[in-house]
Design goal:
Shape: elongated
CATH class: Alpha Beta
Mean pLDDT: 89
Distance between the termini: 47 Å
Number of helices: 3
Radius of gyration: 20 Å
Order of helices and strands: HHEEHEE
Strand content: 15-25%
Length: 155
């Protein structure tokens, strides 16, 4: 094969690799900075179980980050899916955030944990004293999310 066609072929390969790297970097950039939550006066939760408290916590997170909620049904391929367990004390302060299933995109995990921590205090679990709940975070490459508790579904 003459030199010029080989050079052209390798230039195309290089351009495709650079384009793929740029696209991956653009998706990762969405998770470089944790958004600031909107202030919310978290009213006490009347939930009588951890499972019921999960809904109140999800609503609190949606109210804290309305600009980051994915509107409509999620697409079939998500950038990150993770399972997170959060423990809240009687005043709604976060005691612990544990990742039970990390996302495939490693930058999503710390981003989600930071969002949860910054959204505190959560609604105080009045009837429970403290609550430990688990939710699944469905994260789009845009940096918008839905929680499994309040999801609009997936295509």
């Amino acid at each position: 094969m003459p030199f010029a066609p080989r050079l052209a072929h390798w230039m195309r390969v290089l351009m495709l690799l650079l384009a793929a790297a740029w696209a991956a970097g653009a998706a990762q950039a969405q998770f470089a900075m944790v958004p600031s939550p909107l202030p919310s006066g978290a009213a006490p939760s009347e939930a009588d179980s951890d499972a019921a408290y999960r809904t109140d916590a999800a609503k609190h997170l949606y109210a804290s980050y309305p600009m980051r909620i994915y509107k409509g049904r999620m697409p079939p391929l998500l950038y990150g899916v993770m399972i997170v367990e959060t423990e809240v004390d009687a005043q709604g302060q976060i005691l612990d955030v544990r990742v039970r299933r990390p996302p495939a995109a490693p930058e999503v995990g710390p981003w989600v944990v930071s969002m949860i921590r910054k959204a505190g205090p959560f609604p105080p679990p009045a009837k429970l004293g403290k609550a430990t709940y688990t939710d699944i975070w469905l994260v789009h490459k845009s940096g918008n999310f839905q929680l499994d508790t309040l999801t609009e579904g997936q295509n």
